Amino acid sequence: MNAQTRITHHAASPATLQRNSVHGYSAFRLGGFEFYRDEYFAHIRWESRDSRPMSHSLDVAIFLRALMRDVAWGFFYGWVNFDEVFGTLNHYTSVDLYAGTYNGAMKSAGIDRLETFPTEQIRTVFEQMLDDWTNEGFDPFAAPQETGLAYGPKRGNNRSAITRARELATRCVGLKGDLPLRADHTGSPVNRAFADVPQDEPLIHAEPGFEDQVHAFNLFAFLSRSQVTWNPSFTSVVKHSYMCPTTEEHILPIIHGNDRVEWFFQMCDEIDWSCADKNTGKPLARIIMKAGDMAAMPAYCRHQGFSPKRSMLLVWENGSPSLVYEIQKGESPEVPVEF
Ligand code: PHB
Ligand code: FE
């Protein structure tokens, strides 16, 4: 039986179209984009600039892992490409939703579409879709070996996993009143891949009166206890300088397009990166980063990382809200250094 012919209507918010009576998932609409899921795929439909009916499909596990990051990171910096076709571009009060716009072949064929939404509107629909499409037992933040499957007919939900609070220190992890250190008793056991990471903490001898300002913690131990992958947390913040370390395993679920320079420091093991032109997807570089290597991603690139085993990566972000406009006006460079 054709699944599309067996749909039952139900009362819902305007963004929800209908629930499919065969596998049970709701369909969603955002402007001229429609979203459906079945047992294996997320399908996106839109009308192209030249009025042709277009569609695109992604493996639903890949789609949900990307959707999870986009929601949790508030649309991140610049472009969040779910794959080579579909994604979002953050303008910080509004968000572009696009299909094919940053794919050189689709753009020149005129079969792309881009619409801009107030951030709240797209956030609401994305949150509903993530909630409806994530089955019990599937954790979009977990490494593939540490979660159940995304596939099959609708089966419960995993609300606790998809509404995890982002871990953001205001000054530094472990300072009084700031983000606490991770421990067994806070639900953060050491990951299977990091059983050999020493867990001792540094001894701090602060002059009396400076106890609140002199601080240190064991970052390797902190990271060894991360329960999620590809989810940078803020461990120290100095003005707009954010130290965002994270543990990585398998594939970065988005292809990130930069609107600024960002730095990577590979703290252990290895991540290989595919880098491409952020506007067209034309391949630019393959970067093999081993323990101790540093790299900077220029503002004109998009990149996706591949981590064969769980590794530790420090991402260093310049979170200045004016930087993207300084780069657009040519006042700040697109590269970290010119030789
Ligand atoms: C990135 O896009 O630069 C990025 C995002 C998440 C990570 C690592 C790197 O976990
Ligand atoms: Fe990035």
Structure description:
This protein has 339 residues and is α+β, with helices and mostly antiparallel strands. It has six helices and 18 strands. The strands form two sheets. Strands 7, 8, 9, 10, 11, 12, 13, 14, 15, 16, 17 and 18 form a twelve-stranded antiparallel beta sheet that branches. Helix 1 crosses helix 3. The N terminus is likely disordered. The site of P-hydroxybenzoic acid (PHB) has 9 residues, from strand 12 and strand 18.
Q: Secondary structure elements and their pairing?
A:
Blueprint: E1 7-8, E2 16-20, E3 26-30, E4 33-37, E5 41-47, E6 53-59, H1 60-72, E7 79-81, E8 86-90, E9 94-99, H2 104-109, E10 113-118, H3 119-133, H4 159-162, H5 219-224, E11 236-238, E12 241-251, E13 255-257, E14 262-268, E15 270-277, E16 283-290, E17 294-297, E18 301-318, H6 323-328
Antiparallel strand pairs: 1-2, 2-3, 3-4, 4-5, 5-6, 7-8, 7-13, 8-9, 9-10, 11-12, 12-18, 13-18, 14-17, 14-18, 15-16, 15-18
The chain binds P-hydroxybenzoic acid (PHB) and fe (iii) ion.
The site of fe (iii) ion has 5 residues, from loops.
